[in-house]
Amino acid sequence: MTHPSGPSRVEVDRELCMGTGACVYTAPTVFDLGDDAIARVVGEVDGADQRLRDAVAECPMGALRLVPAEETA
Asked: What pLDDT tens digit does each residue of the chain (73 aa) get?
């Protein structure tokens, strides 16, 4: 899978996210867990950031997706 390297955004599938915090551990400047224990984006999304790409790839529930900023859901 290729990841966008330009302006990007992260989609969080709230139905799949189990709040493990793996993304927060891997990319703490980008992710946090909300009061509902669901991942949320709190920092700058840079598709070239290896930690961000690792967090997306390693999400145990597959709840994260890195997409070009102009792509709609």
From this structure: 445 556 789 999 999 999 999 999 999 999 999 999 999 999 999 888 999 999 999 999 999 999 987 765 5
Please state, in angstroms and rounded to a whole number, the distance separating the CA atoms of residues 33 and 47. Answer: 20
Token pair of 72 as six digits: 């709609």
Domain ranges of the chain: 8-68
List, in sequence order, every residue forming a beta bridge with 33; answer none if it has no partner: 39
Three-state secondary structure along the chain? CCCCCCEEEEEECCCCCCCCCHHHHHCCCCEEECCCCCEEECCCCECCCHHHHHHHHHCCCCCEEEEECCCCC
Domain 8-68 has CATH 3.30.70.20: yes
